[in-house]
Design brief:
The protein has about 550 residues and is mainly alpha-helical. Helix content is about 55%, strand content about 5%. It comes from Caenorhabditis brenneri.
Length: about 550
């Protein structure tokens, strides 16, 4: 305990060997007499102040997934289910087990107290002997705070756990539950011992708790640095810390520390196998994608709507010069539709994954690669199905050739385009430090790639110093494949040299501008009919390279954040 700025969080971080960048830490941290460094994570749990859950999951689903992530390899399904039932019972979560967790202030879910107990339940799954908690009662009313601290007490008394907890403004009832309390002031220890002893010690230093006053409030107030009288407060804190160092309580503390140097055994917990981690994370993200109406439902409805719109706009195009403009536009539109909504859809939702990822990575629950692969796999079905919906809902209206293989190639090209786009969306999100930066980078990138896609600029006419950009663009690869696939079909073997004249009547266009066959269209774009499949390979290759770059960016970002 201590006033704001006393060093509580720093002490917890030091014990847990986290977020110590820029700090000069001295001394030794021993767990059962052993200096295990960052290994402290494998014998402890850390319940942080802010609860980070996936609000779309139910309490039970969340715990099931956490059990898969946290229980050691070789744990059977029955054992896992038994453990989940046990922690739900211990943490009084049986009643809300099938309720969605929710997102405070956004989507209604379980109560604040239940959420805190769920945070404990999550950390308790693998039965760690030590539990660190950072201000577990923050944001809870007095009744819920008491319930949470009683739960902690039960863990200590009934399960023999060591609980190290920072606490902010506890009520007298809550304060009395703690066995031992450490008061911090300006990074130093102002007191360590039982609550009665604290009252006695502070009183002997001239700070008697007044009647009808919560001792916790009084001590924190005594140790606080008030800006208006900073120097006096600092001096008071220094005096109290000095007096503690001369007290019997300090002597006892030194003896206790000597005893803890005796080496005792401990059993670190092991994480699940890589495959189990991957499957559990995939399950979690799939459930979230399916439950989140803005991801799954909205995308499918949007693609259906846009597909029908394309179908109506380009309904049964003629095979003449005007029709050609429509066919070319419709094909390019497919790529745009698959690009913009996909990339911005990903960027709207993926940043929310980052805080839990950093936390769970710090807790050594899974490696970053497991998250990254699971995330990619969970997006893959959505960004495959919606492309199929788009093509299915428009293809036959537009008047593209009724040919099984042409249809299938068109669908497949669209699928690969969307995989490529999804890769860029995920990679930019993984690498960019914030959503705003991700969107700012993505906008111009899309403009550059669409401009070099072949519709606005002829691919052979670009200046040598800029034309290389087209080889990074799925617009370029995708458009060439779509154009070749359509215009090399026999439907376009002969194209009427007719177009609309100034009076709105069909008239013959001059031979010099007439594209009399699909092959001419392909040639005029400077596209190559042999590139249809090569482009698929190029897009798949590009997808993989982008994913790798995104992975490296994510790892750098997470590690830099520690
Ligand atoms: N033992 C220490 N020696 C020197 N500086 C310290 C020590 N402990 C903490 N500090 C510094 O004091 C400042 C406040 O520390 P910290 O954030 O841990 O306080 P806190 O008690 O958690 O405050 P709050 O309740 O407001 O979160 C930080 O700049 C930290 O680096």
């Amino acid at each position: 305990m201590g006033a704001s700025g006393a060093g509580k969080t720093t002490l917890l971080n030091t014990l847990l060997q986290r977020n110590l960048k820029g700090l000069d830490v001295e001394g030794e941290i021993l767990v059962n007499g052993q200096n295990i460094g960052k290994g402290v994570t494998s014998v402890s749990a850390y319940v942080q102040q802010e609860d980070l859950f996936m609000g779309t999951l139910t309490v039970k689903e969340h715990l099931d997934i956490q059990a898969k992530l946290r229980l050691p390899p070789g744990t059977s399904k029955t054992e896992r289910e038994k453990r989940v039932d046990e922690v739900m019972k211990e943490m009084l979560l049986e009643k809300p087990k099938n309720s969605r967790i929710g997102i405070p202030g956004i989507k209604k879910g379980i109560s604040g107290g239940e959420m805190k107990r769920l945070a404990f339940a999550t950390e308790m799954i693998n039965n760690p002997p030590i539990i660190f908690c950072d201000e577990p009662t923050t944001g809870l009313d007095s009744h819920m705070s008491l319930q949470v601290v009683k739960t902690l007490e039960a863990m200590a008394l009934e399960k023999g756990k060591t609980i190290i907890c920072t606490i902010h403004q506890p009520s007298s009832e809550v304060f009395e539950i703690f066995d031992k309390v450490v008061f911090l002031a300006q990074g130093r220890i102002a007191f360590h011992g039982a609550i009665d002893e604290a009252i006695h010690h502070f009183s002997s230093c001239g700070y008697q708790v007044p009647d009808h006053t919560n001792p916790a409030d009084y001590f924190i107030d005594t140790l606080a640095i008030r800006p208006s009288e900073a120097e006096t407060c600092k001096k008071r804190c220094q005096d109290l810390c000095d007096q503690f160092e001369k007290s019997v309580y300090h002597e006892r503390l030194l003896k206790l520390m000597d005893q803890t140097k005796e080496v005792r055994s401990m059993t670190p917990h092991h994480s699940a196998s890589y495959f189990t981690l991957l499957m559990a994370l995939f399950h979690r993200y799939m459930l979230d994608n399916i439950r989140n109406p803005a991801i799954m439902k909205a995308k499918l409805i949007q693609k259906l709507f846009m597909g029908l719109f394309i179908g109506l706009l380009f309904y049964q195009l003629d095979v003449d010069q005007d029709g050609l403009t429509g066919y070319k536009g419709a094909l390019f539109y497919y790529i745009s539709e698959l690009t913009y909504s996909t990339i911005f859809g990903i960027q709207a939702f993926m940043p929310a994954d980052y805080p839990p990822l950093v936390r769970e990575y710090d807790d050594r629950i899974y490696p970053i690669s497991a998250y990254y692969i699971a995330k990619i796999l969970s997006f893959l079905p959505i960004f495959t199905v919606d492309g199929i919906v788009l093509v299915l809902s428009s293809y036959f209206f537009v008047g593209f050739p009724i040919s099984f293989w042409t249809f299938l190639r068109q669908m497949f090209t669209c699928m690969i385009i969307e995989w490529n786009v999804a890769a860029l969306g995920i990679a930019v999100c993984a690498t960019a430090p914030s959503y705003a930066i991700a969107v700012t980078v993505t906008g111009p990138l899309l403009t550059v790639f669409s401009l070099t896609g072949g519709l606005f600029t002829n691919v052979s006419e670009m200046h040598a110093w800029i034309s290389w950009v087209q080889y990074l663009s799925w617009f370029r690869y995708g458009y060439e494949s779509l154009v070749v696939n359509q215009f090399e079909h026999e439907k376009f073997a002969n194209i009427t040299c007719q177009g609309m004249d100034l009076n709105g009547m069909k008239a013959r266009v001059p031979d010099s501008i007439c594209e009399e066959s699909g092959s001419t269209v392909v040639r005029n774009f400077s596209f190559n009919a042999d590139n249809l499949y090569t482009n698929w390979m190029a897009m798949i290759y590009l997808t993989i390279v982008i994913y790798v770059i995104g992975y490296v960016g994510l790892v750098r970002r997470v590690i830099a954040n520690r």
